[in-house]
């Protein structure tokens, strides 16, 4: 068991990039934990899935974006203790995909320049990821 007996939750997240080097953020809807905060698309890695498979599935379900495992490049990861679990979240970068992102679950979306990421309040786990994206882009 991890710190204070908290379970480790594995979540895969993706920085989807457009041709201008902007990153897609999605706003967590009302009623969910951390509502109103801006996050990277992705979700929990389900039993029997690899993180890459999770992302290919989630990008389609959440955004209507089709991509392939080969188009997901690992960048860094978040490791953060929340009140009820410890989040371990690999962050991938995806530049090659088909389709135009739209919030299929009613969530607001925003394409954001790397230097403007700090203007969008994100979950605490995400804060340390920002410099990696700013350095990359
Ligand atoms: N997709 C995503 N999840 C994140 C990010 N940062 C972060 O702390 N998380 C956390 O990772 C978990 C992702 O769960 P999810 O997206 O599959 O599920 P959910 O919101 O329906 O779950 P929940 O309502 O039970 O929290 C949430 O607890 C969320 O707060 C991020 O940038 N992207």
UniProtKB/TrEMBL annotation:
UniProt: Mg(2+) binding residues: 42, 62
Residues covered by the Nudix hydrolase domain: 7-137
Molecular-function GO terms, alphabetical: 8-oxo-7,8-dihydrodeoxyguanosine triphosphate pyrophosphatase activity; 8-oxo-7,8-dihydroguanosine triphosphate pyrophosphatase activity; 8-oxo-dGDP phosphatase activity; 8-oxo-GDP phosphatase activity; metal ion binding
EC number(s) stated in the UniProt entry for this protein: 3.6.1.55
Matches recorded under CDD domains: NUDIX_MutT_NudA_like
One Pfam assignment: NUDIX_4
Cofactor(s) this protein requires: Mg(2+)
Keywords, alphabetical: DNA damage, DNA repair, DNA replication, Hydrolase, Magnesium, Metal-binding, Mutator protein
Biological processes annotated in GO: DNA repair; DNA replication
Binding site for 8-oxo-dGTP: 28, 39-42
Keyword set includes Lipid metabolism: no
Enzyme class name: hydrolase
Catalytic activity: 8-oxo-GTP + H2O = 8-oxo-GMP + diphosphate + H(+); 8-oxo-dGTP + H2O = 8-oxo-dGMP + diphosphate + H(+)
Protein family per UniProt: Belongs to the Nudix hydrolase family.
Record's protein name: 8-oxo-dGTP diphosphatase
Higher taxonomy: Bacteria, Pseudomonadati, Pseudomonadota, Alphaproteobacteria, Hyphomicrobiales
């Amino acid at each position: 068991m991890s710190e204070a007996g908290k379970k480790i939750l594995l979540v895969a997240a993706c920085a989807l990039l457009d041709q201008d080097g902007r990153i897609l953020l999605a706003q967590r809807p009302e009623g969910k934990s951390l509502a109103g905060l801006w996050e990277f698309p992705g979700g929990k890695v389900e039993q029997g899935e690899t993180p890459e498979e999770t992302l290919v599935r989630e990008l389609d379900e959440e955004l209507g974006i089709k991509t392939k495992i080969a188009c997901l490049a690992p960048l860094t990861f978040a490791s953060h203790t929340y009140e009820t679990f410890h989040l371990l979240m690999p962050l991938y970068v995806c530049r090659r995909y088909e389709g135009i992102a739209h919030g299929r679950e009613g969530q607001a979306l925003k394409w954001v320049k790397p230097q403007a990421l700090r203007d969008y309040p994100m979950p605490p786990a995400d804060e340390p990821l920002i410099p990696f994206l700013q350095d990359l882009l």
